[in-house]
Amino acid sequence: MRTRKLATLLAGAALASTTLVVGAAPASAAGPCGSSYSRVGVYAIPKTGTRTGTLEVYYSSSAGKNCALAYGYGSNYGTTTWKGVSISRANGTGYEVNADYFQYYAGPVYVSAPGQCINVSGSVVAGTSTSLNNVHCG
Q1: Do 67 and 36 contact (CB within 8 A), yes or no?
Q2: Could you give the CA distance from residue 129 to residue 52 in angstroms, rounded to a whole number?
Q3: What pLDDT score was predicted for residue 127?
Q4: What is the CB neighbour count within 10 angstroms for residue 98?
Q5: Pick from 42, 23, 22, 20: which is nearest to 31 by CA?
Q6: Residues 83-127: pLDDT tens digits?
Q7: Edge-to-edge strand order for the sheet containing 105-112?
Q8: Given this model, what pLDDT does residue 29 score?
Q9: Quick one: which H or E segment has residue 4?
Q10: Is the link from the previous residue into 26 a cis peptide, with omega within 30 of 0?
Q11: Is the torsion defined by CA of 26, 32, 34, 35 positive or negative?
């Protein structure tokens, strides 16, 4: 009788632990640009004045690419407003842009720039932007 109770208890514990593991997020969950990207920069939009958004820059050494997104901040997050993000190599080539009326963020946009610097810009609400030139040189 004791063995049967112990077996039932162990089976229940195994089921509970399996359920917890299945429901957990994987340790290598992909970020907004993909699983091999690491965030290398976070910047307020605009640089001075009332913040409307956040510009985030990511890099993947395995892909040799940079990635950028522009998020709304405060009342601009979760509200459909103008949001835009652009990225290019520092020399202006490889330019990619994503801009429109979005609820949460613009992007991601990518540029292949191994061993080069990049230009990146983010805008949340028309007229507010942050631009960085010749940065994140890799």
Answers
A1: no
A2: 9
A3: 87
A4: 18
A5: 42
A6: 999 999 999 999 999 999 999 999 999 999 999 999 999 999 988
A7: 38-45, 53-60, 65-72, 105-112
A8: 60
A9: helix 2-23
A10: no
A11: negative
Phi and psi, residue 62, nearest 5°: -70, -35
Determine what percent of the chain is predicted with pLDDT higher than 70.
79
Count the alpha carbons within 13 Å of 84 in the hemisphere toward its beta carbon: 15
Give every CB contact of residue 38 below 8 A, 6+ residues apart in sequence.
31, 58, 59, 60
Give how far Cα 133 sits from Cα of 25, 91, 116, 137, Å.
36, 10, 12, 10
The pTM score is 0.78
What is the pLDDT at residue 132? 98
Amino acid 97: pLDDT: 98
Q: In this predicted model, which residue has the larger pLDDT, 52 or 21?
A: 52
Provide the token pair at 7: 């077996």
Tell me the two tokens of residue 48. Answer: 């001075």
